[in-house]
Write a structure and sequence with these properties.
Blueprint (H helix, E strand, L loop, with lengths): L48 E3 L20 E3 L7 E8 L6 H9 L17 E6 L3 E7 L9 H14 L4 E7 L6 H10 L6 E6 L6 H14 L4 E4 L8 H10 L18 H17 L8 E8 L17 E9 L2 H8 L4 H18 L3 E9 L7 H6 L3
Parallel strand pairs: 3-5, 3-6, 6-7, 7-8, 10-11
Antiparallel strand pairs: 1-2, 4-5, 9-10
Helix pairs in contact: 6-8
């Protein structure tokens, strides 16, 4: 990687030139870009290959002999196919989760205007004809005030060790600050190429964006710098191409069509937390945890008495955990009005996720100072 600005690839729109002054960018503000991508089935290849237990194809090149009991379906890929992991890092509220969703083309990570929304690594898979990019959305790196904060920072640093590329997210609408410099120093020794994504490019003028690109370039030594907007798709495809170019030659790591490996219970819990964060706004975002206590299907559950509601709806029971009794009252709201609204919004997202009607049962409980209690953190999965 090179240190001078003239050597570092900054990826403006194809029809734009990076210059100084008021004409920093020529061309349209936000050319079309989309996080959606094709699948290997669209590449014109020969399709999947079925191998027998000796590692060879069947006599007709497709179906193995009847005597073979185990079959392994291997997605077809070119010899120059690339696949690998790219980790998104940045300070809280830098747009990492929103960008992850835009790159994948569907929602795999919850988003919120509140900092530190992400509390665990979320994987999203981007499928292209010649590559498969596995994105790892991480919690925001920050100066921790609690044991939870320290554990989240440790999680990010552990993730950085095993990825093929790093995406350092810096928002275009905020000046480079101490938090960005702290992260830049933290990741400088990484063996993986670092691509800076200047996020939220749609929120600033061309002149401001150009100035931010120059400030980002001066912050460290980067493999690429790409201004991008997850909201309108601006240069999302460009960022995918740049990241794919840094991946190693490899067969696909995930089956065609898979967009995440998140367990269903985890995704349900995150949808409830997302709804709660939006509802309570600034009142207690960091003091809230969510635990999925139970998921029951009336078609297979034998207890019977625990099934509520009509129509064979999926039964989902979730606890919202706060640190103070006063916070519990805030979460419930007058006459249960706030908890009801959280349930309406969350149920809508869960039903879209599972593809069926859901009975959602929410409860609020208190775990005093859980963010700094090792035992409480363990019970909550941190």
């Amino acid at each position: 990687m090179r240190s001078t600005m003239t050597d570092i690839p900054i990826r403006p729109p194809a029809d734009a030139g990076l210059v100084g002054g008021s004409d920093a960018f020529a061309g349209p503000d936000a050319p079309d870009g989309s996080g959606a991508s094709g699948s290997p089935d669209e590449s014109g290849g020969t399709g999947d290959r079925i191998l027998d237990d000796e590692g060879g194809a069947g006599p007709d090149g497709g179906t193995p002999p009847a005597s073979v009991r185990a079959r392994l379906v291997v997605p077809a890929s070119q010899e120059d196919f690339r696949a690998g992991f790219a980790c998104l890092v940045g300070r809280p509220n830098a747009g990492k989760s929103t960008l992850t969703n835009a790159l994948v083309g569907t929602k795999v990570a919850i988003t919120s205007g509140r900092p530190q929304t992400t509390r665990h690594n979320v994987r999203g898979v981007v499928h292209r004809e010649s590559s498969q990019l596995v994105l790892v959305d991480t919690p925001g790196l920050h100066r921790p005030r609690t044991l939870l904060g320290r554990r989240l920072n440790d999680l990010v640093r552990e993730t950085l060790v095993d990825v093929d590329a790093i995406v350092f997210c810096i928002p275009a609408n905020e000046k480079v600050g101490p938090g960005d410099r702290f992260i830049a120093r933290d990741i400088a020794a990484s063996h993986a190429p670092i691509v800076v994504a200047v996020t939220k490019a749609d929120t600033v003028s061309k002149e401001t964006l150009a100035a931010q690109l120059l400030a980002v370039d001066a912050l460290g030594r980067w493999a690429d710098i790409v201004p991008v907007s997850a909201r309108d798709g601006y240069q999302v495809d460009v960022l995918v191409d740049v990241l794919a170019s840094h991946l190693p030659l490899s067969p696909p790591l995930y089956p065609t069509g898979d967009v995440t490996d998140e367990p269903r219970a985890v995704m349900i819990g995150e949808l409830v937390r997302e709804a709660a964060l939006e509802e309570v706004r600034d009142e207690l975002p960091h003091s809230l945890a969510v635990v999925v206590d139970e998921i029951l299907d009336p078609a297979t559950d034998t207890t019977g008495s625990r099934v509520k509601g009509a129509g064979g709806r999926l039964q989902v029971r979730v606890s919202l955990v706060v640190e103070r009794d006063s916070q519990k009252a805030i979460m419930i709201g007058r006459g249960g009005s706030r908890l009801k609204e959280i349930g309406i919004v969350a149920r809508r997202g869960i039903e879209e996720l599972v593809g069926r009607k859901v009975y959602l049962d929410l409860h609020v409980r208190t775990a005093r100072d859980w963010q700094s209690d090792p035992k409480a953190l363990a019970r909550l999965g941190f």
